Prior knowledge:
284 residues, alpha/beta, Rossmann fold, 6-phosphogluconate dehydrogenase C-terminal fold, 2 domains, 6-stranded parallel beta sheet
Amino acid sequence: MNSLLIVGTGLIGASTGLALKAAGFSGRITGFDLSAAELLIAHESGAIDEVVSTREAATEAARRSDVVLLAVPVFAILDWMTILAPVLKPGQLVTDTGSTKVQIADVARRLFPGVAGPRFLPGHPMAGKESGGAAIAEAGLYQGAVWIFTPVDAESTAEETAWREWMSAIGTKVMDLEPARHDQLLAWVSHLPQMVSTALSALLEDTFGDDPDLRAIGGRALREMTRLGSSPYSMWRDVAMTNTAPLANSLLALEQRLQHLREHLRTPELREEFQRANKFREPR
């Protein structure tokens, strides 16, 4: 892999560029973002070497790149897949960082079939922050994180192998999952915690507003439980709309569990629930 185009130079895209360079990647990294400010920050930070400022220029840059990384929300990933599939050549690789994978994998099978043409490797790094933007990107973002792939073809090309190796080089543990399995698990380990934090933060805002007493006594528990509540809707709209059923199922299960707790606040069931909860973080 000698050249990379990063579409979306926010936190994830810019951090990937920085991480690759820190790991020794010496090829050319081009960046595109709808935000001129994000592009400028990513370029000034050294995450990307070259800027393209229009979709047409980005498409042309994709033609010249060994790998294209789509580090944008899911619906934008699907749009770019449609744009790139007809113009790329055999041997070129497109991959992504989308938080849901079933729809992306389905489209990849249709638009990037077989090994004779350009390839698509769905991916998802399990790293990030509660807010986005190139200004908070860092080369060490992926250290110790898992980078999940949900391949749509059993055969791997040289570029796919190279990309996997670079993801290991930047500090991640590479892991493969079926797309549906990915979305089911992510509904529980990522999407549900976000919705819980959003609901709690919105409830506190509606109930207490600017109450200084609440903010004065709110400690670590409050900070940790509401941290994800700072995430913007723009980051989560596509997740909710492309993983609706698994996420709704996890929310329903939590609602039922909370009802169980509420009904047993004064019974031994509460102790048993704490005992079950304590087991979750024990070494397995």
